[in-house]
Amino acid sequence: MPVWLQAGLWGLLAGGALVVGAAVAWFVRVSQPVVAIIMSFGAGVLISALAFDLVDEAETTGGLVPTIVGFLGGAVVYVLANVVLARRGAKDRKRSQGQQPSESDQQGSGAAIAVGALLDGVPESVVLGLSLLGGGGIGVPVLVAIFISNLPEGLSSAAGMKRSGRSVGYVFGVWVGIAVVSGLAGLIGVLLLQGAPASTIAAITAVAAGAILAMVADTMIPEAFERTHLYAGLVTTIGFMVSFAVGRV
Known about the structure:
The chain has 249 residues and is mainly alpha-helical. The chain is built from 8 helices and no strands. It has helices at residues 3-27, 32-62, 64-90, 109-130, 140-163, 168-193, 198-228, 232-248. The longest helix has 31 residues, at 32-62. The chain is globular and about 50 Å long.
């Protein structure tokens, strides 16, 4: 199977976790503490994958300076885009309670939330695709981290959408659309970068990693901390160590 097609399918699989999480939130009443605990765990898993796989690999392959520049650049671009979307109603897109505005509260907030969710998912799919370019197959720790973190993301955000009065068509349209775009992002990333110098791939990996870390801090940790602030640190630590152990098995 061509590498670009593999990248697309893996990205689709990882994005599909968002749809699964949304379905759970829509059809099953999940308590806020449970959502927060799962979100804490997912944040820890992603942070571990960033530290021990993405950033480490980028530095080893491309050098320290390109990694630092790319990592910080990715975070800056993500934050700037997030600021713009927050002003249009997407600030609380991953919150599961009543924080998300309805369309009547803020015109255009539905589109902003959808674009914001896409902004969160694309960097993850890109790094999944890039992990295939080394010839060693999919990066299992990164795939597991993204899949596990996407479940609570979809769950929490869909719960918030439901509370704000979004329709079932809107909710599942958003998440299915993001799953498809995630697959396309991984596929296109590989097509564009296949044969590129290792330093270029490392720099882009660092950019995506910086964006992912900024996303974790801006959108996942606030939801995790709000209801389980006494335990969020412990659960995040457990998620971190589980991801680390998966990478070393």
